[in-house]
């Protein structure tokens, strides 16, 4: 008997440490360009590259087996594998979504606090509360 273990990725946002020099750099960038985005981009495809390749490959195999009618009984195997992998993928997607929301909220507040602060000593107490 074959057991497939559900695996999923757990994404947790860890707020970066903003030093005084980093604060000054970000403050200057935001003063020069009001639309500057301090929130670093994260690639969805890069984060789920392996899962997307596996699901795509198994889907192609399933399609191929489905097209060849004489091997119809084999279609159950890839479908079971897809369903099993999908559960872990769905949990990973949910964790990723929560991570992205938390990251976006943090950087939105950080941007607001940097803009509203005159200096690092004024900024730091606000930053700690984020």
Decide which structural class fits the backbone. mainly alpha
The separation of the N and C termini measures: 50 Å
Largest sheet: none
Estimate the global geometry from the Cα principal axes. elongated
Keywords:
single chain; 130 residues; mainly alpha; 5 helices; 0% strand; elongated
Tell me what the structure shows.
The chain is mainly alpha-helical. It is built from 5 helices and no strands. Helix 3 (49-67) packs antiparallel against helix 4 (76-116). The chain starts with 19 loop residues before the first helix and ends with a helix.
Brief digest:
With 130 residues, the protein is an all-alpha fold.
How do the helices and strands line up, and which of them pair or pack?
Layout: H1 20-32, H2 44-47, H3 49-67, H4 76-116, H5 120-129
Helix pairs in contact: 3-4
